[in-house]
Amino acid sequence: MNPETCDPRPVIVTGDRPTGPLHLGHYVGSLRNRVALQATHRQFVLVADAQALTDNAQDPDRIRRNILEVALDYLAVGIDPALSTVCVQSALPALAELTQLYLNLVTVARLERNPTVRQEIQARGFGRDIPAGFLCYPVAQAADITAFRATLVPVGEDQAPMIEQTNEIVRRVNRQAGRPLLPEARALIPETGRLPGIDGRAKMSKSQGNAVALSAPPEAIREAVRRMYTDPGHLRVSDPGRVEGNVVFTYLDAFDPDGAAVAELKARYRRGGLGDTAVKARLEAVLDAFLAPLRERRAALAQRPDEVLDLLRDGTKRAQRLTADTLEAVRDGLGVFTLAA
Question: In sequence order, what are the residues at sequence separation of 6 or more whose Cβ sits closer than 8 angstroms to the Cβ of residue 6?
């Protein structure tokens, strides 16, 4: 038996698609929770390169290049390979077979009803030309989660339907197996909610050009803050301004360690007499202070890429053993047999 399966701690599975460097939205939405929980949970972090192919199949080199970039971001924010297993999705063959098995338990209609899938299809403008891999990625995600027998998945609120669909598959598998073969998972949604893009849109996204990368240098931070959406009715410094929906204040709430000072800024802004330039100057300083140590750690790690890749290989080997054990159990539970070697 794999000794890791005897560890009684709750299991977390999470990950990111390597389509580019990670950004502040990733940090608020998931990375912060991962760092906080890794000492008390068994945590597996997937570099989800296979999932990234679902809408980047025309540019696989982009995904290959960014595997290392995402790993560097993980290490820079404080994910510790001694506490968290960081692994590469495409190097875990059990995930592909679990996906194939689970696809027989899900209908196309159910996939199309998934609110997250519907929103992503609309955002990408697929219409009816939806790549089959993209439509089915909730099933692949269910394979990721169940392969590690995860009970907790840190996600943004928009991803909660994915966990719900995973649990539907788990219940189907358990009914067919006649025993609780796989555990259900719970979505861990951050209290701060989703961090909006700098343009005020609901989601920060690399593809929409409204993100601030965790590796952003001071000049990039300055440019991003300068472009941030504020209150369009706040035309003069003396005008009262709206804090609600003002992206600059949303970011101050998320990253400024001095909550009392932010509360005072909000009160002054609402009364009038505080200009956007002053508020943005504070945010620029706050973000640079937050990102500077991450940039420094990341730059040092980037000088040793072979060491980072070795960490990925080691984590992937551990994950291969665990996911293979789960696949064997699911095969047996579903009554799926293979020819003896």
Answer: none
Q: In 3-state terms, what secondary structure has residue 272?
A: coil
Measured distance CA(29)–CA(32) in Å, rounded = 7
Burial track 146-172 (b if 16+ CB lie within 10 A, e otherwise): bbbbbbbbbbbebbbbbbbbbbbbbeb
Torsions phi, psi of 96, nearest 5? -65, -40
Residue 195 DSSP code: P
pLDDT digits (tens, 9 = 90+) for 131-187: 888 889 899 999 999 999 999 998 877 788 999 999 999 999 999 999 999 999 999
Strands 186-188, 84-88: pairing kind:
unpaired
Domains assigned to the chain: 3-196+305-334 (3.40.50.620), 218-298 (1.10.240.10)
CA atoms of 76 and 295, how far apart (whole Å): 7
Cα 244 to Cα 92, 228, 234, 247, 270, distances in angstroms: 45, 14, 13, 8, 10
How far apart CA 51 and CA 138 sit, in angstroms, is 10
Q: Cα separation of 29 and 156, whole Å?
A: 5
Amino acid at 96: A
pTM passes above 0.70: yes
Give the pLDDT confidence of 293-307 residue by residue, as tens digits.
Answer: 999 999 999 999 999
CB neighbour list of residue 144: distance below 8 Å, 6 or more residues apart:
13, 15, 46, 48, 89, 95
Q: How far apart are CA 281 and CA 154, in angstroms?
A: 32
- SS3 state of residue 154: strand
Sheet with 152-154, strands from edge to edge, namely: 84-88, 42-47, 11-16, 152-154, 186-188
Q: Is 158 left (phi over 0), alpha (psi -120 to 50) or beta?
A: alpha
- Tell me the pLDDT tens digit for each residue of 254-289: 999 999 999 999 999 999 999 999 999 999 999 999
